[in-house]
Amino acid sequence: MIYAASCSALCATRNVLLQISSGIKHLHHLRIVHRDLKPANILLADAKVGKRKRSVMALRLPSDASVRSDGSSALNESYPDISSLDVNPNARTSRSVDIFSLGCIFYSMLIPGSHPFGEWYEREANIMHNRPNTRALKELSVDAHDLVQRMIQRIPSSRPTAKQVCEHHFFWNAQRRLLFLCDFSDRLETEGMMGEESSSPFLTKMLAIESNASSVVGTAWDSTLDSELVNNVQRFRTYDPSSIRDLLRLIRNKHHHFDELPERLRLEMGSNTDGLMNYFDRKFPKLLAHCFNICRSLFPLNDSFAMKYDVT
């Protein structure tokens, strides 16, 4: 049973998608593959009304946690059976079948009336030839786009697990998003102070962070911020407005010294957590995904920072 939250449209949709993902996570934990995920099988209900969901096709996984991908290829209310379309259809696949279908549902709910693989008559061909079109979703939410792109990967093993879907930064609240950016900034500054600035790993991180900076924060991020904020931060230290590392440092410093902001900005933001993060999210919607993907590509899985934020 899915209950919609009373907040902004994107927030409400995100809440519903998290509930759906949590349900699939629970099924997969029980070694059950749903195999029939589609919008028609999702029941939306008012929080005070309970309804029984109709039974759906499912398969319990054997001890090796996999099932033969031998489903039929018939169209399922415009949702093809992905188990018959996966790479190497004779191989053993498993929960990744549900993740692909779930990714298509995510897209359809975030971009109503659309499907990442086009109209019903071209979907099977586009899936077979790996031709998704997710540009509209990227314009709506960079974080959602990052998640859906991973969920609809052509190769089953490249898709995240249901647990990883639930832990993706698309579902993070403002407080966790801000904490991640502040901790990431602290990590970079700590490595720099420990004399690692000339080391190869540190330089690799710096090059990766500043790569494509203009597409993430613009050529000069200070021109995007309120002039009052820029004037305020320049009183205390000098920042390079072309550097993502310096922008992270600014966000961290304003979180810790929120009371030093001009009164108008403090009142507009409301708090040094949700309000501050929402402000920077609006200004730089690509920043968090950019930083997270740097961590994903450069931090080992056993790194304490990667483990804290489920960077996989």
From TrEMBL:
Pfam families: PK_Tyr_Ser-Thr, Ribonuc_2-5A. The keyword Aminoacyl-tRNA synthetase does not apply. It comes from the Eukaryota. Residues 1-171 form the Protein kinase domain. The keyword ATP-binding applies. InterPro entries: IRE1/2-like, KEN_dom, KEN_sf, Kinase-like_dom_sf, Prot_kinase_dom, Ser-Thr/Tyr_kinase_cat_dom, Ser/Thr_kinase_AS. GO terms for molecular function: ATP binding; protein serine/threonine kinase activity; RNA endonuclease activity; unfolded protein binding. Residues 174-311 form the KEN domain. GO terms for biological process: IRE1-mediated unfolded protein response; mRNA processing. Keywords: ATP-binding, Nucleotide-binding, Signal. SUPFAM superfamilies: Protein kinase-like (PK-like). GO terms for cellular component: IRE1-TRAF2-ASK1 complex. This is Non-specific serine/threonine protein kinase. It comes from Phaeodactylum tricornutum (strain CCAP 1055/1). The lineage of its organism: Eukaryota, Sar, Stramenopiles, Ochrophyta, Bacillariophyta.
